[in-house]
């Protein structure tokens, strides 16, 4: 039932505007992959291409080895869940859910049985005769989900399905969606602009920017090892320090940042270090110390905030404004001259930005 | 819950009501009068002026012609207007200037001008049969109403509903009939009724398009009043009202319940 989805070098245009550029995606059977990115980056466009509402200008789409690229949308057999639910306003809940079965020539008893079973699963059996207009947002989304699931499609797609719901319901529904998806083992594409939502329910996440996939990886890898500066910023790396290697000596590298700041980095810990690179980290990747001889970035500490597990400091350095964490045992006063020492496990080395544009 | 209403407002409402219903009462009353001239209040009660309608061949003919023209032109206007309104709303089609003018024109420009220009340009130049030119004229007359009313009911329609149907396996054309039309049903009914009434009551276009042998009911009423002052015109007017209401009821019943449902 469930099938592998492959997008191979897809380019798409609206009129003469290019919206997707050379986009490739390989989703394994039963896998849930999220497309994550800011509004306008091309997530919906990608779904519309897969659904068949838009034809790519280049590239191919295959599902279960079958080429879909030129197949009309109504023959693709893909379950779609829309952001605004898109329920049929003139049909009852049961008829909404039964619509896809009706198109497949499943009638009478057989259809009613499957519709009822599906409504049971999403907990809406008691509302079967209601019209969509008389449902709450969460109920509507369940109907939309049931309608897409009941046809047992080889591929499910969700376009920001929870963005019209309130925060509490969003969390409940995403767990429900993930459980239903797991139970059926249906290959799924899930679109969202909410990082927490994407990371919490996905096997892998594709971070998109201006019609391209910047990185496709597991949530863990994205969170800890972003592959480029864009993704690093996206997942909350506050400190991106541009550096240039000025000396290599055995396993050790001496690099210089703006303002003449020098750091020595060990290649054992960071792997191969290119001549120009970005040292990227979150606040906990730079440790604050008042030891003037520590091998770190000289800084003047600014505002201190309490995070529970550490103190966080706004720091002014010759290399620019940075965020760093200090120990709970020693709060420093604003204005203290300190050093910010990179914590290798919490830092990552990225290619300079102009190279991944 | 009771709310106090300003007495002046009540007076105004009553006044409006009198102005709306008054003419109807007078026409119906005059139609039922037993006299051989138009008068109100009626003197004596009789249905003989209703019988008289059907004794005059010209009335018999024009009632049929008017009904035919109204149905045909309304039908054509719906066939053109629904897809046009759909395309304009669905794809945000920017119509070329002349075409969008066409959809607005008859509402803005005094109808007389349209009728006259139609007569000149179309009927005379191409020697089109009167009946056909009547249909064309009436279609153009009612098309703007159809496009506007359907557009209005499509304006709030969420077209992703169509895509949902297609993704569930319903081909696009079938989706148009099973999903879109049922959701603009009240718009279609309103457009039908508005177009039908506009057509069957039209004088200004018809007066230019009618010719020897073929006329419409309102034109025949005009012609009749030029020669006779008997209550026949009043009874014809009542008949026209009854016909219109009957058509509205039938449309409401059929379009409302069966034609577009599921
Ligand atoms: N129908 C359309 N016509 C022209 N441009 C469009 C259309 N739909 C979307 N776009 C443009 O394509 C880009 C990607 O849109 P979309 O895929 O909807 O983004 P997302 O879903 O990630 O917010 C945006 O810049 C948007 O303005
Ligand atoms: Mg979108």
TrEMBL record, chain A:
Q: Which PROSITE patterns match?
A: ABC_TRANSPORTER_1, ABC_TRANSPORTER_2
Instruction: Write down a Pfam family by its short name.
Output: TOBE_2
Q: The ABC transporter domain covers which part of the protein?
A: 5-235
Q: Please name the Gene3D superfamilies in this protein's record.
A: 2.40.50.100, P-loop containing nucleotide triphosphate hydrolases (3.40.50.300)
What biological-process terms (Gene Ontology) are attached?
Answer: quaternary ammonium group transport
Keywords of the record, alphabetical order, are:
ATP-binding, Nucleotide-binding, Transport
| Any one GO molecular function term | ATP binding
Q: Which InterPro entries match?
A: AAA+_ATPase, ABC_SmlMolc_Importer, ABC_transporter-like_ATP-bd, ABC_transporter-like_CS, P-loop_NTPase, Transp-assoc_OB_typ2
Task: Write down any Gene Ontology CC term.
Answer: ATP-binding cassette (ABC) transporter complex
User: What does the sequence similarity comment in the record state about its family?
Assistant: Belongs to the ABC transporter superfamily.
Q: What's the name of the protein?
A: Spermidine/putrescine ABC transporter ATPase
Task: Tell me which species this is from.
Answer: Devosia geojensis
